[in-house]
Specification:
Layout (H helix, E strand, L loop, with lengths): L10 E4 L2 H6 L8 E4 L7 H7 L6 E4 L1 H5 L5 H19 L5 E5 L18 E2 L8 E8 L4 E3 L4 E3 L4 H11 L6 H7 L5 E4 L6 E2 L5 E5 L11 E3 L9 E5 L1
Length: about 230
């Protein structure tokens, strides 16, 4: 079991689902981890799921329909319990089998795909939940170790040229095209791997948020290996 993180000023580690939900984001704290050592064979589940596209959403009916060994069934039960917990808490979980995400190659000076460090934004109060059951794990980055890409002078200049409009409309342009959500790691930054099996709750930018949103990114997938990811 991966365990490449520890509690810090921006990460809180808990031992129950209720604690995961009850911790208030405030100040530097913008990520909570329910640390778990899950049993079961998640690799078997991945091997028996059908990858229809590079990112395939797996329904609970798809999951129930798999013919699994006892360890595979144990893993399936873990996933279904997570779905039930999150759904009962008002979230809308999705289970994804991922070969790769779509890459953003439109501009050579800025990337805005999920492999880029970014934050999530919402008009209403919500959180992002992540759990990697199998495959490469996502990463988060302390806010003080990151720089907003639109504040990097050379990137900002190129975005200004791309905008080509009135200066007073530039900030709106950055927001409308989601450029402002993306970050780059500062020299010496130490991203935190979220590990496998742990359920994370990450802070989202919204009007009532009392902390900075959590900066995170998807990992580069391992060659020939799909990820099994819960997200909502």
């Amino acid at each position: 079991m991966e365990n490449e993180f520890s509690e810090s000023t921006h990460v809180k580690v808990v031992s129950t689902f209720s604690q995961l939900m009850d911790i208030a984001f405030k100040g530097d704290l913008n990520a909570v981890c329910w640390q778990r050592d899950l049993s079961g064979d998640f690799k078997e589940i991945v091997s028996k799921l059908e990858l229809k596209t590079n990112l395939t959403e797996i329904s609970m009916d798809d999951l129930r329909g798999l013919n699994l060994s006892e360890p595979g069934n144990t893993a399936r039960t873990q996933i279904m319990h997570d779905f039930e917990r999150l759904t009962d808490a008002g979230a809308s979980p999705s289970l994804n089998l991922i070969k790769s995400y779509e890459r953003d190659e439109e501009f050579d000076f800025i990337s805005t795909d999920v492999y880029s460090f970014h934050v999530d934004r919402s008009p209403v109060g919500t959180d992002t939940f992540l759990c990697t059951y199998y495959g490469a794990a996502s990463e988060i980055l302390p806010n003080d170790q990151a720089e907003q890409k639109v504040r990097v002078p050379e990137i900002r200049q190129k975005l200004s040229e791309l905008h080509g409009g009135a200066e007073e409309e530039f900030e709106s342009f950055l927001t409308e095209h989601y450029f402002d959500l993306h970050y780059q790691a500062k020299t010496g930054a130490r991203p935190v791997k979220l590990g496998v099996g742990h359920l994370w709750r990450l802070a989202v930018a919204h009007p009532d948020q009392q902390c900075l949103p959590c900066i995170h990114r998807a990992p580069l997938e391992k060659e020939g290996e799909c990820r099994l990811l819960l997200i909502c």
